């Protein structure tokens, strides 16, 4: 199992100020994320953070992009803005990469694939905000790139609990193992 762990990365996605601020987060909601990060670190699983941010002036944003055109207009989503920084509750430790993406998928414009391939990683464990956004988009693209996938169902959040349930119970299992953070952590021992 150690050989497999060395090839695995935990992706902690969109756990940044401006995105998480839209959700009611209490200690119980943080626990699965913290469990996953702690277990990964304790067992030598690479932790990689993914955030959404743009260069000054938003050159990556097309005016016709419904999701991101408003960000370019109102600002607050550049790499230097406080809203794009990873939250203290799951903050990166020195040596843990922070990848910046410019679309919904963690792979979009981020260099994530190069980072994973350079480290020999072929298995991804996904968690983040939101289930129907970054988790779904990243899972689909990672599956197309032939990564082995696990989704931590309780370390994913969506604005619509029913959408989260359908994705976790019916859609994700077609391409990934779906576990709780605790179940995944226990498999590492």
TrEMBL record:
Domain Isochorismatase-like residues, every copy: 8-183
Q: Which domain of life is it from?
A: Bacteria
UniProt KW Hydrolase keyword: yes
One Pfam family matching this protein: Isochorismatase
Keywords from the named record? Hydrolase
Asked if Lyase is a keyword of the record, the answer is: no
One GO molecular function term of this record is: hydrolase activity
State the family it belongs to: Belongs to the isochorismatase family.
Instruction: Kindly provide the name given to this protein in its UniProt entry.
Output: Cysteine hydrolase
Species of origin: Cohnella rhizosphaerae
